[in-house]
Amino acid sequence: MEARTPETTGSRRAPPGRKNGRPAARAGGIRRDDDAPAPCRTARRERPPAGGRFSSPSHETRGGAVPTERKIAQVAELKELIESVGIAIGTAYQGMPVPEQTQLRRALVAEGATLRVIKNTLLQRAADESGQPLFADLADGPTALVTHPDDPVAAARAIQNYRRDNPQTPFEVRNAVLDGQLVDADYVADLATVPPREVLIGRIAGGLTGKIVELMGLLEASTRELAGLIEARAEQLEGAEAQA
């Protein structure tokens, strides 16, 4: 009888490195890491921060929504500004480098004016609530508001001087609210040519002084004439008495 071999019986030899279907041990009885099955790892889930949407103090600086309380405070601040300024100038500042913005702010502060970037919707709401809808017309695109409490000429002059010294600046005037009227950029430019308040006061005082001096001269002349008439009349009366 022919002896059967694994080849003739159809049985298969175990592949190299495996014994009885299991990985064979390496030399020295140590199994390498590549022989071991990979451990099962589960992805960790990030938990949302506790405390609600505005719990992070830096949330607003990352472009999140502004809390309602802050909006209310900003509208109240704009209402107070609207009710107290002598002039409010709507300007376009988009494209100004930060150093130029700093230079402009300093020039305005030197004249007693201020520059603040505003949100159009908040300015419009403040204008409606304060009963001065003209201020809402200043909000047109990205807007920076230049205001002065009591000297419109100083604010206009500071802007005009800055634009003269920086002819390439993208900063420009759109319109302004002055004495309850909406005026255009040309009006603000003309306003900048008005002499400063101190000069105007000096001119008025000088004019008044001249008029007072002139009036005093007329009064003095009239007094001299009156004295001459009185003296002549007295002499006339004395002559009449002597003849009598």
**N-end to C-end Cα span:** 202 Å
Secondary-structure class: alpha+beta
Mean pLDDT: 75
If you compute it from the alpha carbons, what radius of gyration comes out, rounded to the nearest whole angstrom?
46 Å
Number of helices: 7
The count of DSSP E runs of length 2 or more, i.e. the number of strands, is: 7
**Considering the protein shown, what is the CATH homologous superfamily of the domain at 68-191?**
Ribosomal protein L10, N-terminal RNA-binding domain
- Identify low-pLDDT runs: 5-11, 24-36, 46-63
Biggest sheet, spatial arrangement of strands: 4-5-3-6-7
Instruction: Give the CATH architecture of the domain at 68-191.
Output: 2-Layer Sandwich
Q: Determine and state the CATH class of the domain at 68-191.
A: Alpha Beta
Question: Can you put this structure into words, describing what you see?
Answer:
By secondary structure, this protein is of the alpha+beta class. Among the domains are: 68-191, Ribosomal protein L10, N-terminal RNA-binding domain (Alpha-Beta Plaits), CATH 3.30.70; 195-228. The chain is built from seven helices and seven strands, in the order αββαβαβαβαββαα. A five-stranded antiparallel beta sheet has the order 4-5-3-6-7. Strands 1-2 form a two-stranded antiparallel ribbon. A hairpin with a 2-residue loop joins β1 and β2. The chain is elongated and about 105 Å long.
List the helices and strands and how they pair.
Blueprint: H1 6-9, E1 18-19, E2 22-23, H2 68-84, E3 87-92, H3 98-110, E4 114-118, H4 120-129, E5 143-148, H5 152-165, E6 172-178, E7 181-184, H6 185-191, H7 197-243
Antiparallel strand pairs: 1-2, 3-5, 3-6, 4-5, 6-7
